[in-house]
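Section handout 9: paired folding examples.
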Amino acid sequence: MTMDQAANHKGPPPSSMTIQELTDLHAREICQWRYEAPFDIYNWPSWETTQKEGIEFGDSSIRDAQYAAVLGANHELIGFAQFFPIVGVTRLGLGMRPDLCGQGLGPAFVQAILREAQRRAPHNEIDLEVLSWNTRAIRAYERVGFYIADTYTRMTPTGPAECHCMVYKQTADS
């Protein structure tokens, strides 16, 4: 984050957020989160379904290898991150607790996840996918150094949708 970006962003510094193991209890809590439309596309199935069908963090081997909890200063769960390995690339997946969305926490949240991605695979490029209509998330990603590198259609839980691939460009200040 540049000095100007840091001065203009709200919310706690990324140093007040920590990345920890995503436990069963965290995963169960995430499955209970409910986003309002149009963000409800990000709602997870029940924990029982997620576990039974081995969906993402419902499969303990995927959870242990790729997922992490993002905890706030008081050790409360504020979100999660996925560090999906592709050859030479770490693709991020992330979600913030619904009641915290839209409060200016996005840049610090993403910055904390970026630090962990760099720690895990320091030589990898870092990218993520975001639905093109999700301007709130796109702004948060841009504030910490991501740029739109590609736009394409991909399948989502509700059908095909336009998606941006955003790539992190590290600056001298980040």
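Moving on to protein 2 of 2.
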Amino acid sequence: MTEPQQNKDEASKPLIKKCTYCQEMKPLTDFQRRTGRRAGPYSRRGPCRSCRGLAPQERAATSAPSGEETNPSAAPVTQHSLEANTAAHSLEASLPMEAQRPRRKPVTDKARERHRQRVRHLLSRLKPADTRALRLNRNGMIRLRGKTDQGRRWHQEIELDLAMTLVRERMAVIVNPYTVRRLYSNKEFRQYVLKRDRYTCFFCGGYGDTIDHLLPRAKGGHTTPVNCVCACNECNQVKAARDVDEFIESGVPQPSPDDFEAPDNPDASEGTLHT
């Protein structure tokens, strides 16, 4: 059989993949596609579509080993390896909600407003830098250079207004009249904002691990330390392209109860925002 015919026969066979949650072999159509530049035509995500909609407790119950399905006639080594893989998988399914997210006490409106004032105070301390030294090059642009998360250097040409905004809002510094340098890579900037805001959502006061723009990029905002704050995933999605005041007045989503722990002394913990 020739190689093209063999490839054609292999392509005609239904492709299957094991789900990382239920450990069942299912066709590729039951999995979501992976996105990105390095994703191939057959790249799929780990969990199947049915398991992605389950709660973490249901995933752990689905992946737990069943005593009735155990085959006693199987070899000891094979049985031991299957039990080890299933136990490890159930442990991974139950860890993220409990281990990665810190347990916090309920947040009051007074504590939420106090956190917003603290973040606004930190942003006000970032005084605008002087941009009068910038000059256009022969192409009528400003050269911007920086580094990727892997440490590779890059450069590009940007307009004068954008260069002045990046320097003014402390995202870049002036190297010479024709060049500015970006201070943070994407990963460094994310870690800087999250640590500055103590992993606390600017809007609801709950646990936050995403970055949101005070002035949306759709309305001319830029990714700078002055314009970015920490936000939880729900507030980030609900706010979308709205202004901060408009979003807060319309009603901020309350933090998830899973992030809270019952306080021992409710009177002593009232108004406390754990960050």
